[in-house]
Each structure stands twice: as C-alpha cells, then as structure tokens.
Design a protein that fits this description.
The complex is a heterodimer. By secondary structure, chain A is mainly alpha-helical. Chain A has a single domain, classed as ABC transporter involved in vitamin B12 uptake, BtuC (Orthogonal Bundle), CATH 1.10.3470. In chain A, 74% of the residues lie in helices and 2% in strands. A two-stranded antiparallel ribbon of chain A has the order 1-2. The longest helix of chain A has 31 residues, at 2-32. Chain A is globular, with a radius of gyration of 19 Å. Chain A starts with a helix and ends in a 14-residue tail after the last helix. Chain B is globular, with a radius of gyration of 19 Å. Chain B has helices spanning 42-50, 77-80, 100-107, 116-121, 125-143, 159-172, 189-204, 217-223, 241-246, 248-255, 260-263; strands spanning 4-13, 16-26, 31-35, 64-67, 70-71, 85-87, 177-181, 209-213, 226-231, 234-239. By secondary structure, chain B is of the alpha/beta class. In chain B, α3 runs parallel beside α6 and α5 crosses α6. The chains are: A mainly alpha, B alpha/beta. Chain A binds chain B through residues 158, 161-167, 169-170, 173-174, 176-185, 289, and chain B through 50-52, 76-79, 81-82, 86-87, 89, 93-98, 102-103, 105-107, 109-112, 114, 116, 119-120, 122, 130, 169, 173.
C-alpha cells in the first residue's frame, strides 16, 4: 500500500510539472491557435540556462533562477517576433511545422553548448526527507509541488481578473472583434509566448533539481499532449488537472507493471495509451470547448 | 471637411474589384445607411473604415478615409479605436466564454490607461480607473436593458440579446462613430423596433454618428438621415431616403429592369 502511495506522491510532483508545461501550451493554443511542438524544448532551454548560471558562472541559485525567468521572457518575445509573426495568416500546418523545426533547432543548440551528457544541479534544498501523512517526502518534491500550484494560482487570477488577462481571453474567442475593441493582438501573441516560456522554464528548473538534465529533456513536451487532450485543449483548469492525472496514472501504471508483471518502461508509454483512450471516449477532454456548428 | 469623409476608395481581391472609387460623407450626429444588394461591397466598406482591409487606393490618385479631420488609413485597426471608432459585426462576434460584463469591459480596453503591472497589483490608479470604467459600462447596461444578463456567458444568450450585447460592447468604447453591420438581421418585428429605437437614441442622446448597413428597408428609410446605395462595388445613389427611393438606378438594382433576364443584370 505504501508503495502505491509513494507512487502517487511522485506522480503528483511530476504531474505538477506537466501541468505547468501544459499551461504554457494551452495559453499559446488559446490565444494564437498554434499547436506548439517545441514546448518541451522551451523547458529544456530554461533548465540549461539556469544550470549554466549556477554551475558555470557560480551565481547563487535564487539569482540564477530570476535571471532564467528574465531570459525566458526575452526568448518568448524573440520567438514570437522572429519566427511566428511572419507566419500570421499562413496555413495552420506551416505554423505547426515551424514549431517542429524550432524544437530541433533549440535541441541542437543545447547539445552544441552543453553536450549530451547528463548534468546535475547543485543541491539547493536539504536532502533529509520530511514526513507528510506518514510518508517520507523529499523537500525538493514539496517545493516543486508548491511552486507549480502557486504559479497556477497566479495565472488563474491573472486571466480571470486583470484587464490584460481578460483581453487575452477575449482575443482567444475572436481576434477580429478584439482588434476592433482596441486590443493590439500582436502584443497579446507576444505575451502568450512569454508566459509559455516562463512557465516552461520554471518546470525545467524544478525538473533539473529533481532528476538532473540531459539533452532529451525536451521529450517531456510530448507528455503534454496527453495532459491537454485529457483536460481539454483550451482550458487552463483542464491543463492543471490533466497534467496531475497523467503524472499520477503513468507513475502508478509503471509501478504496478513493475511489481505485478515484472515489466519495466511502462512509464514511457502509459501516457500515450491513456491519450488514445481519451480520444476514443471524450475527444474534447474534460473541460474543452465543444465545437458546435450552428447553421 | 465632412465628419466622416470617404473619398475614392477602391479595394480589390486578387483582381476582383469589391469597391471601385466609392466616395461619400457622413455628417456628425446623423444616421447614415449603406445599402445595396448582397455582395455589393457594404461590409467591405465597413472593413476598410475599421481597418480590417486596406484599400488599394483610388481610381484617380490616393484614396482617403478620415474621421473628424484625422486620417484613419495610416493607423492599424486596434489604434483606430482610440480615435473614436467602434463597430459590430454581421455574424455576431462576441467573446463567447466571457460574461456580458466582461465583454463590455473589453469594449473599454482602448480607454485603459494603466499598464500590465498596475493591472496585476491592482492599486491606486488602476482601482480608480476600474471604478470609472465599471460605471460607464453600467450606464450602457441600463440603456440597453441588459441588467438581467450581466453575469451570464455571452455564448449562452438568445440571439436577439447577443445582438444587443454586441451593440453594448461597441457603445462601451464611447465611440464618436459607430459602424453597425446588419444589427437587425434575423430579428423579429418587436426586436427590430427595439433595435431601431436604440440606434435613434445613440445618435440623438449620445451624439454618436452612426453608419448602418442593413437590409430591412423599412427601418433604413425610417431612421436614416442619409442613404448611400452601392451595387457591384460602385456607388449608384446618395441622398435622403425619399430621393434614393425615387432614383431609377436604385430601383433597377433592387428589382431589376424589364429586360434584366436577357442582359444578365
């Protein structure tokens, strides 16, 4: 029993990171209708920049983290301005292919600078486990979960109450109408990419603290698809829950397969099996908007 | 110079002319209607004014669209709101998942004077402005009798109410000129009369200049100070409702001429 509880706790932590990255994906999809295949590479970019600052430049972790956030904002602005903006009005498939290409470019850049070896973050938090509800949990796990939850809360409030957030939601519903209300939709697009880069970088830094980082970190981006398909492509709440559920399910499935069947590696495929099942029974996800054509 | 001055606007889509050298003017505080058969170029004209389309130029020299003496053509669409331009759409373009209140508040987006940081911290100037904006929005809600729907999602409202919310969103921007694209389309008689009353009040009480595109000729002839008729991208008549109704060219465009069946017109 404790074995499974431990699996669930680990799943929640990983799921929290999935949620964050899914949040970035959903923000971009909602505002710009771009399916971003480079989401995982944004995670990787953030993780490596923070790593470089702390280990190679010996900057204290907290400062390095803040600088990483600033870098992410610039990265988001740069990507939107140089890659996406010239494509406004082009075919959807072209834009999607550009994000696929961008993921390769980012991955190659990281390998160019830092190689393919696994890199380990310095220990920031104490390693002594804390006992939560009778289970020993590493402090870094708790910090990871709290940080994810806090970011989610902040962005939920931002989208619900701030005028800029409401303008972003309005743009998601109708770009033309938003424009005629005086909303500069290019700014909104840029803002979406900034938010996506920042939350991804935070996810990357958290992951780096837990597992260390390597050049395959970007594969995490693929796990975002089951999460957002489960939650609903255009729902923030869906991204949060979808990420957590996928995190827990893949961990529990993996653990169960290991214990009961003696099989390893189920973790890698569990999320995608779930993805196929969701698409069969609930294609719009838990909270997604159903497309209804009124004639 | 006239309040809204449209001079020699030509718009083509890959060689197909939607508008050919159309010129007309609208005086301040009046209601002008733009009519014409389907596909005549009415919505294209509104889109040129609001900035969705950029005219190619004029038939002779550059074209001009100016509002109250200020040139609109050099500004992108979202900056034209600041000059007092606001519009509604033919197919209702509300922000479906937002409440009626939020839809109207977005209408005031162009009037926001605090930045992103202030909107996150929500202190001082942001609070004062928010209160002011909320008050103006409430005035619009009262004027259009939208208070029962205030907190409902715009996408779930009945058709007639959504049309009204869209008008409210355009009004919330405190426009000087409002472009209405078929506000009565698909409405029953009672709703049409209500809408006509609102439009008259907008012009008379709020002092907003109205440019209306509408197919309901009864309403157009009743409430307009001026009617502009276009057909196949060209202006064929301009004048008071009486003058336009008597115009032989207009009658031909709408009803066809006797040998229309043979000439293809």
């Amino acid at each position: 029993m404790e074995y499974y509880l431990q699996l669930i706790v680990n799943g929640l932590v990983v799921g929290g990171i999935y949620s964050l990255v899914a949040l970035g994906f959903v923000v971009i999809y909602k505002a710009t209708k771009v399916v971003n295949f480079a989401q995982g590479e944004l995670v990787m970019a953030g993780a490596y920049v923070c790593f470089a600052l702390t280990v190679q430049f010996n900057i204290p972790f907290l400062w390095a983290f803040l600088v990483t956030l600033a870098f992410s904002v610039l990265l988001g602005l740069g990507i939107e301005r140089m890659v996406l903006r010239p494509l406004i009005g082009e075919e959807h498939i072209s834009v999607i292919m550009v994000t696929v290409g961008m993921s390769s470019v980012l991955k190659s850049l990281v390998q160019l600078f830092w190689g393919t070896q696994i890199k380990v973050y310095p220990q920031v938090l104490p390693t002594e486990p804390v006992v939560v509800a009778g289970l020993p949990v590493a402090p870094v796990y708790i910090a990871a979960f709290v940080l994810s939850a806090a970011l989610f809360a902040i962005f939920s409030l931002f989208f619900k109450y701030s005028r800029t957030g409401v303008a972003m939601r309005a743009t998601a519903f109708d770009q033309q109408a938003a424009q005629s209300m005086g909303i500069g939709i290019k700014n909104i697009f840029a803002m979406s990419w900034c938010i996506a880069c920042v939350v991804s970088a935070v996810g990357g830094v958290i992951l780096g603290n837990i597992n260390g980082i390597n050049a395959h970190l970007g594969h995490l981006g693929l796990k975002v698809f089951p999460a957002v398909i489960l939650g609903g492509l255009d729902s923030l709440l869906g991204a949060a829950l979808g990420g957590l559920i996928i995190g827990v399910l893949e961990n529990v499935c993996d653990g169960a397969a290991r214990q009961l069947l003696g099989l390893g590696g189920v973790r890698e495929v569990a999320a995608f099996i779930i993805l196929v099942v969701i698409l069969m029974i609930k294609p719009y996800g838990l909270f997604g908007t159903r497309e209804i054509e009124r004639v | 110079m006239a309040y809204l001055d449209i001079c020699d606007v030509t718009l083509t889509f890959k060689g197909i002319a939607a508008l050919m050298g159309v010129s007309f003017t609208v005086e301040q505080g009046t209601i002008a209607s733009l009519i014409g058969p389907n596909g005549a170029g009415k919505t294209s004209m509104l889109n040129c004014i609001s900035g969705r389309y950029t005219p190619d130029g004029g038939a002779s020299g550059p074209c001009r669209i100016s509002l109250d003496g200020e040139c609109l053509l050099s500004l992108p669409a979202h900056r034209r709101t600041g000059l007092g331009l606001s519009r509604t759409f033919q197919n209702i373009a509300l922000f479906k998942g937002l409440s009626v209140l939020d839809n109207l508040m977005v209408g005031r987006h162009g009037k926001l004077e605090y930045g992103l940081l202030a909107s996150i911290l929500y202190r001082g100037k942001a609070v004062r402005q928010e209160t002011l904006h909320r008050r103006r929005v409430e005035e619009v809600i009262d004027f259009l009798n939208l208070s029962p729907y205030r907190h409902q999602h715009a996408g779930r409202l009945p058709y007639g109410v959504r049309k009204r919310v869209e008008l409210g969103r355009a009004l919330a921007a405190e426009p000087k000129l409002i472009l209405l694209d078929e506000p009565m389309a698909g409405m029953n008689l009672e709703e049409t009369e209500d809408m006509a009353r609102y439009i008259l009040d907008i012009a008379e009480e709020w002092g907003v200049t109205v440019l209306l595109v509408e197919h309901d000729m009864g309403v157009v002839m009743d409430i307009s100070d001026k009617v502009v008729v276009i057909d196949f991208g060209q202006k064929i008549a301009e004048g008071t409702p009486e003058e336009v109704q008597a115009d032989a060219g207009v009658v031909a465009a709408y009803l066809g001429t006797e040998n229309a069946a043979f000439t293809g017109r």
